[in-house]
């Protein structure tokens, strides 16, 4: 239900349940967790791109599965809903979205680090329309990526916003034409993988961890990260390549 392909240093993870609008059932949740495991364990993969088959990124939870008493199967112990939204990761993950991302589908997108979306995309959390709560991250992640008033509008009305509006408020890193989301996401991934992978991962980790921290904590942990990186081979490759006027050759170690 989630395919995995390696394109150079970029791993492409694809939601593959288009006949059900890529709604999350047990197979999708387990497939996502397995795909993230593979991304994390694959030394050749430095960045992941999460995309989809079919016209819908994801409609969220499979209501038929929930109706059948299988709600627990939509989560995994490490990843939470869809095997992703609570997953601790080290490698960057970019969502490539070329259609609606609604309810849990929007929360899957918010669990990624960056979003590339086409003008066909829409983002929404319509749970209140069914007397439900968006319990897979949207209630606190949406206010982090769009202004609080816009997040509350989306959360309380349940109405989606178009990709253009999402881009205007900073939710989307790259807005593109229909059919281009995956390729544009790969281009963004390539911009990341020219950099030292261990430095990217540590910088990502600290940026997420320190966003609400005080300056003293931020300086301390940033300094500790620099000391740790100084023990790696790539730390010395960067200055050496600069002095020798060549592109660095990163080893990821």
Strand-residue proportion: 15-25%
Strand segment count? 11
The portion of residues assigned to helices is: 40-55%
- Residue runs with pLDDT of under 50 for 5 or more positions: none
Shape: globular
Number of helices: 10
Report the radius of gyration as a whole number of Å.
Answer: 19 Å
Average predicted confidence as pLDDT: 96
Strand arrangement across the biggest beta sheet:
1-2-3-6-8-11
What are the salient characteristics of this protein?
253 residues, alpha/beta, 42% helix
Protein described:
The protein contains ten helices and eleven strands. The chain has helices at residues 26-41, 63-67, 104-111, 138-145, 148-157, 163-168, 181-193, 197-210, 215-229, 233-243, and strands at 2-7, 10-15, 47-52, 75-76, 80-81, 93-97, 100-102, 114-118, 122-124, 161-162, 174-176. The strands form three sheets. Strands 1-2-3-6-8-11 form a six-stranded mixed beta sheet, with helices on both faces. Strand 2, helix 1 and strand 3 (47-52) form a beta-alpha-beta unit. The relative contact order is 0.11. The mean pLDDT is 96.
């Amino acid at each position: 239900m989630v395919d995995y392909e390696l394109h150079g240093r970029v791993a492409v993870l694809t939601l593959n349940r288009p006949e059900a609008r890529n709604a999350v059932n047990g197979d999708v949740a387990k497939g996502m967790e397995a795909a993230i495991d593979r991304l994390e364990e694959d030394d050749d993969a430095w960045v992941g791109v999460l995309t989809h088959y079919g016209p819908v990124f994801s409609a969220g939870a499979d209501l038929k599965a929930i109706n059948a008493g299988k709600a627990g199967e939509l989560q995994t112990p490490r990843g939470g809903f869809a095997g992703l939204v609570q997953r601790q990761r080290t490698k960057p993950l970019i969502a490539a979205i070329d259609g609606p991302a609604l309810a849990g589908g929007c929360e899957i997108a918010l669990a990624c680090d960056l979003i590339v979306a086409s003008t066909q995309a829409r983002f929404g959390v319509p749970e209140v329309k069914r007397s439900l709560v968006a319990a897979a991250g949207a209630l606190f992640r949406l206010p982090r990526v769009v202004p609080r008033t816009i997040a509350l509008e989306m959360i309380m009305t349940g109405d989606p916003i178009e990709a253009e509006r999402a881009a205007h408020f900073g939710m989307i890193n790259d807005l593109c034409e229909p059919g281009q989301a995956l390729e544009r996401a790969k281009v963004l991934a390539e911009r990341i993988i020219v950099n030292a992978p261990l430095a990217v991962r540590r910088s990502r980790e600290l940026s997420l961890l320190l966003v609400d921290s005080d300056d003293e904590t931020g300086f301390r942990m940033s300094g500790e990260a620099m000391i740790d990186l100084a023990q790696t081979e790539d730390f010395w490759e960067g200055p050496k390549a600069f002095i020798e006027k060549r592109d660095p050759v990163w080893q990821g170690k």
